[in-house]
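Shape is hard to put into words, and the shape of a protein is harder than most. The fold becomes a row of whole numbers, each drawn from a learned catalogue of backbone shapes. The outcome of that step, for a single protein, is printed below.
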Amino acid sequence: MSPRLALASLAVAGLLAGCGEDESERPPAPVRLIVETPADATVVPDETVTLRGVVRPRNADVRVRGEAADVDGRSWSAEVELEPGGNVIDVTASLRGRAPAVTAVRVIREVPVRVPELRGRAPEDARDELAALGLGAEVDRSGGLLDDLLPGEDGVCGTDPGAGELVRPGAVVTIEVAKVC
């Protein structure tokens, strides 16, 4: 084989070897981020919730609502203050040279409602006050047989659950109504 042909063969072989994918040229894997708790759309009564999860690689920076989370190895956690109603909590993880990971979890803070004192009020007024608080109302005419024969108007004798008790938003309160309590 002539020296030119040998040189050309080496050049072609070198070019063909360079056509394959070199492991060192592959971009690093993106950051992986998982929120383990709470589950999406969790309903809680508390003012705060603790988010927990895992991140890969272990030296990634995890932020919850823009604040640094506590990271221990691959595990991370962060306590978050909640507003009443729906809260969308964003979580990000990043590491220089890798594509970041972004996710969000929805947490609903359900604020209990205190049943107001309605005794002595007109049933319609009691029903309106409960509706203004986001509660349903069911009227129970508990005056008995003679109640229909007595003069006067119906009034609220009490409620179930009772005045001052905490109930979930949307709960139905029974208004106990009679002419004489």
Notes: The chain has a mean pLDDT of 89.
